[in-house]
From TrEMBL:
Belongs to the binding-protein-dependent transport system permease family. It is a multi-pass membrane protein. This is ABC transporter permease. It comes from the Bacteria. The chain crosses the membrane at residues 21-43, 94-120, 132-151, 163-184, 215-237, 271-295. It comes from Kiloniella spongiae. The keyword Transport applies. InterPro entries: BP-dependent_transpt_permease (IPR050366), MetI-like (IPR000515), MetI-like_sf (IPR035906), OppC_N (IPR025966). GO terms for cellular component: plasma membrane. Keywords: Cell membrane, Membrane, Transmembrane, Transmembrane helix, Transport. It holds the Pfam family OppC_N. The keyword Ubl conjugation does not apply. It is found in: Cell membrane. Residues 92-292 form the ABC transmembrane type-1 domain.
Length: 304
């Protein structure tokens, strides 16, 4: 109980309570995550159950009874009669799942390589950082597309749709690890010369114990900031790949897939099929990004 009270009165908590941008961004993210978790309960229909679809309900306008069936859809329906609100909830599930796991994979890989490069040094550091420098010369979305194409080409055709989401996570994660590695390596170069690390060496601690138990806890603050901002970038990267048709399969459409589908009907007057998924993606990415910006400023001692 005392720890909760101390956390509530900490500088970070005070900064959060007095930042309208942080409060609003956190509230939006919290609501969207809750909507994703409870999508089966909130969604009026299961958009991926063919038995619940009625093609006569196709292209129903938002909050307007269908001419033939009289059914009303909050955000309208698409060409197959699927409720757009339900497809957004389930599509956001895929986008958040890919974003969170891709960032987690990139963070684990980047922290590991950054610790090794910063602490071990020598040729190990040179090889790791030169690979990182080469990867930085290419846009991360192109790296993700390349990795996605290579890995998907290796997987047998009959398993591609089942493995597409995991391949997408791997591709985005391998495209985003460099930022984590560079930051952790720089922080490790500073921390490894501190007295507590030298004391750990003197008492005979092995390298991996020093890196994990002593250095790692002291380099996590900037990593958390990068992870928050990278989550927004990963969500956008997933949406971009799915919009280009090389991401989530049609059987598991994400927000990017829904936007791609809606774009085909934009000029025929069915604007809601594109607008609402696009607004959801914008709200999700922007709120996560603004929360990351606040966290970066709050943890920066030079701005206090």
């Amino acid at each position: 109980m005392n720890k909760i009270i101390d956390a509530w009165h900490s500088d970070l908590a005070w900064n959060f309570r007095n930042s309208p941008v942080a409060v609003v961004s956190f509230a939006l993210v919290f609501v969207l995550v809750l909507a994703v978790i409870f999508a089966p309960v909130i969604a009026p229909h299961d958009p991926f159950d063919p038995s619940t679809l009625n093609l006569i309900n196709g292209f129903s306008q938002p909050m307007t009874p269908n001419t033939y069936t009289g059914d009303v859809f909050l955000l309208g329906s698409d060409d197959q009669g699927r409720d757009v609100f339900s497809t957004i909830l389930y599509g956001m599930r895929i986008s958040l799942f890919v974003g969170v796991f891709a960032v987690a994979f990139a963070m684990i890989l980047g922290i590991t390589l950054g610790l090794i490069a910063g602490y071990v040094g020598g040729w190990t550091e040179t090889i790791i950082m030169r690979i990182a420098d080469v990867q930085l010369t290419f846009p991360s979305i192109l790296v993700a597309m390349l990795i996605f194409g290579i890995v998907k080409g290796v997987i047998p055709v009959e398993h591609r749709d089942q493995m597409a989401i995991w391949v997408l996570i791997l591709a985005i994660g391998l495209g985003e690890w460099v930022q984590f590695a560079r930051v952790v390596r720089g922080a490790t170069l500073v921390e490894k010369n501190r007295e507590y690390v030298q004391a750990a060496r003197l008492i005979g601690r092995v390298r991996w114990v020093i890196m994990i138990r002593h250095i790692l806890p002291n380099v996590l603050s900037p990593v958390l900031v990068i992870a928050t901002i990278s989550l927004a970038l990963a969500i956008i990267a997933e949406a971009t790949l799915s919009f280009l048709g090389v991401g989530a399969p049609p059987t598991q459409p994400s927000l990017g897939t829904l936007i791609r589908i809606g774009q085909g009907f934009l000029f025929s007057g069915e604007w809601w099929i594109l607008l609402f998924p696009a607004l959801t993606l914008l709200t999700l990415a922007l709120s996560v990004n603004m929360l990351g910006d606040w966290l970066r400023d709050a943890l920066n001692p030079k701005l206090r």
